[in-house]
Amino acid sequence: MANIRTCNKHNMIACVEKTEHNADFHQIVDYLTGCSINYSLLVDPDLIGPWLQQFWAIASLRVINEVPHIRAMVAGKRVLISEETIRADLLFDDAGTIKPASTPIEAHKSLGKDEEGEDVDVHLYRSMIGCLMYLTASRPDIMFAVCLCARFQVTPKVSHMHAVKRIFRYLKHQPKLGLWYPKDSPFHLEAFSDSDYAGDNHDRRSTSGGCQYLGRRLVSWQCKKQTIVAISSTEAEYVAAASCCAQVLWMQNQLLDYGFNFMNTEIHIDNESTICIVKNPVLHSKTKHIQIRHHFIRDCYEQRLINVVKVHTDDNVADLLTKGFDLARFNFLVVTIGMMNP
After folding, report:
1. Most C-beta atoms within 10 A of its C-beta, which of 40, 68, 111, 182?
2. Rounded to two decimals, what is the model's pTM?
3. CA quadruple 278, 282, 286, 288: dihedral sign
């Protein structure tokens, strides 16, 4: 098998050119490499404030294209940021004959430990997961499927390998899909939160999904299995909202360094009960089962750092990061979340 070398995704934004001004190179790069809005920084330098441009010249799209696996394309008033898909023939001998898949995972598919299944090569499986994890830096459409398969790296089975190969089959079907960033989009911070209640058939834990936008530009997304067993869908949604809120607070603090104050950020949630709990400052018997550490979202709401807004389930783009879907629903969410083909 060929060795595959990948780089940390945060290093993608380190393509800057130092000017004649006496600026602290490492200090500025530290700011950039710790910021989850790296794609926006590359695409539109105006977003990071005029003070930074006095000392730095952000690399042009030509320079971005010289970064390994990164491609930037201009189409009208939009810019496409995508990663060059790792070739499947590095991992499969029959890559030229594999049948493309229309979705990265089967609808409502839930993998288990499959203790009775046949073992597969651990090193090969982990190498495949590593390649796919790298691609998730610009491919939120495969985020859930990759994270699901990554849970079985200790003792992978044949069923797990088939699920991983399906992701590569999907990448063969959609090799150039990327994030579209419209230049004329308004510049404001908003987020979406969702969860898949008891989606894991083994331990019945839920999966949290969240994504953050600057205008219509998707800049951050998360998919994580919850550490607790939620006894209600409201609790699962509440835990997911608290996780999304933590990411929003971190982004608010980062953007303050660039002179942008995004207080009272809207977090879109499709569960009415969760919104009521966030807005209700009184703890009562119906919320005693929720761990205290998740209640910090209430303080954030009272301090007007965030605002929770009801969104219809069909329009909640974070749903893409929590479960598998049929082709029609999957394609709708991919377009809605902000991904297109060049």
Report:
1. 40
2. 0.77
3. positive
Q: What is the pLDDT along the chain (342 residues), one digit of tens a residue?
A: 333 333 333 333 333 333 333 334 344 334 333 333 333 333 344 444 443 333 333 334 444 444 455 566 655 556 666 665 554 444 454 555 678 999 999 997 778 889 899 999 999 999 999 989 988 988 999 999 999 999 999 999 999 999 999 999 999 899 889 998 887 888 899 999 999 998 888 889 999 999 999 988 999 999 999 999 998 999 999 999 999 999 999 999 999 998 899 999 999 999 999 999 999 867 666 677 787 778 889 899 999 999 999 999 999 999 999 999 999 999 999 999 999 988
Query: In 303-338, which ranges are continuous DSSP H helix?
Result: 327-337
Domain 186-340, second-level architecture: 2-Layer Sandwich (3.30)
Taking 3-state DSSP, the helix, strand and coil percentages for the chain, each rounded to the nearest 5, stand at 40, 20, 40
The amino acid present at 231, given as its one-letter code, is I
CA distance 281 to 299: 9
- The residues of the chain that CATH labels 3.30.420.10 are 186-340
Q: What are the φ and ψ backbone dihedral angles of 160, each rounded to 5 degrees? A: -70, -40
Q: Which amino acid appears at position 213 of this protein?
A: Y
- CA–CA dist 49, 154 (Å, integer): 46
